[in-house]
Task: structure prediction
Amino acid sequence: MNAVTLASIEDAARALAGVAQRTPVDTATYLSELHGAPVHLKLENLQRTGSFKLRGATYRLSRLTHEERARGVVAASAGNHAQGVAFAAQQLGVEATIFMPLGAPVPKLLATRGYGATVITDGATVEDCLALAAEHAARTGAVMIHPFDHPDVIAGQGTIALEILAEVPDADTLVVPIGGGGLIAGVAVAAKAIAAQRGRDIRIIGVQAAATAAFPPSLEAGHPVTIERGGTIADGIAVVRPGDHTFPIVRDLVDHVVTVEEDALARAVLTLLERMKLVVEPAGAAPVAAVLEGLIEPRGATVALVSGGNIDPLLLQRIVAHGLVASGRYMTIRIPLPDRPGQLARVSELLAGVGANVIEVLHTRHDLGLTLNDVVLQMSIETRGPNHQAEVLDALRGAGYAPDVVAG
Result:
């Protein structure tokens, strides 16, 4: 097994010069106030191709021999690795074939094709696509470019840590999303080595989506464990088994791995959009979700690695709506009413009195279970948070109504 070292990561940084962008590190004032310590964001969502994956793919391809390049490359990905490999292959004049799952986000699929790769959509999951890519490699001689489990890929991703610690030399904690572990493994190797050179330690915390979190059971077992894939909006980190190369690095160098639920991911995407004007995919927002949920103990300066911004606009629309509900900003209620004139006006008056904004109204006599003298009023309401929602419900109940919360 080839070792990943600070020297190999520094070599990767030289190879990436002129290809990968040096993405900004911004201070997040809102998160800092919530966290109780400085929080900075490493914005890899602003990287070429929209994610950090370009780094590992470029370094891996740059180290192929002329004979290997002539055979072409093949990869499997839900989108970000696909774009990274396609872009790197285009830059180096290498033919690339990418297997993507059926139902892969359309923007990622179109972008991958736009970089000149041949895209084959087949298989329900990334694991299916990895198997198909391996068969293609065996049949054609193309070089398999694994999305995370190769030393060169890990070293390429580790270049992010060099940039972070140049920008925030006093960083105490790095919070990094984890799928298969390539990103956090590279970051951990570089960050721990640089911190040791400076005579101090640095804390590395990984964040997984709770619905598909393979590292906690793997770390407990002491070896990579395959789990069942759960439904998560964070498709970029939905990996069912840690890599054989990445696992021992994470085991030895990562201090802690936490998990975040789907509501937390949605709130993080919404927070980044509203408060920091950043478009971030759920996987990339996972570190921010961990900060918002209070899962990171505040110490010194914390850097959350925002790993990607490739999100389908339709998914973003759903996430924003879900995030509003999850943060207590949106509520749908059903109110049984007597079928008498003036009831809608009275309810509207009550809501206006407590400062709730009505977004949508449905007034129906055809709901199951209604008598001939009853109607149901369904209202979607914009609120300012959980306390305000409670105030709205109390006002309605105090006036003799029995609101039932449908969402929120």
